[in-house]
Amino acid sequence: MLLAVELPIDSKIGDIAILATELNMALPDIPKVFIIDDDAGVRAAIQGLLKSEGLQSEGFESAEEFLRTKRPDGPSCLILDVSLPGINGLEFQQQLKDAGLQVPIIFITGHGDIPMSVKAMKSGALEFLTKPFRDDTLLEAIRQALAKDSARRQEQAGRSALQQRYRILTRREREVMRMVVSGMLNKQIAYELGTSEITIKVHRAQVMHKMRAGSLAELVRMAEKLQLFSDHSN
Is the pTM for the entire model greater than 0.90? Predict the structure, then answer.
């Protein structure tokens, strides 16, 4: 005899909320390249090159001007001159890093040296180009930067969706999920929680449904991403 389990209303509402969130995350974002260089000629040349490749861009004379501008939330990268009025490129890179703002940086400079480039790369810069540089060299670096940022955003969106699914689990369902992914059998979980095995089966089915896990292996991978094996809080 099959046990029919009617999903609670709050579960259905949770499903709708998650779907809306994931559909919003799936909307295509147009990549954009930001250029910070106090030389208007350099900015114009790079923007012209990017336009010819079908890429959107925006130019800024200083780091301060860039910070004052609202930026779209989509894949992006930053072409950053080392020598800038006010905050220089390397200082600005460190400020972004300290603030937890993750954007791939391509440094350009007219008078770079090895120590400078090493410092920039150690701090996470994707590329360090000395003027004059070849158009195809810059374009290749930009493609890599945009691909890297897009992948990071997709991973972040996936993790956010997973956290949203986990949040709609009840307290008991979270307990059951942790025990299931740790390898415990239904009867062991029932004994541990002082309930019946059939109740655990219902909770387990709810967990699989709400988390959208097609198998135990997939649920375990989700638990790893949620860091449930090291986090014992609810």
Answer: no
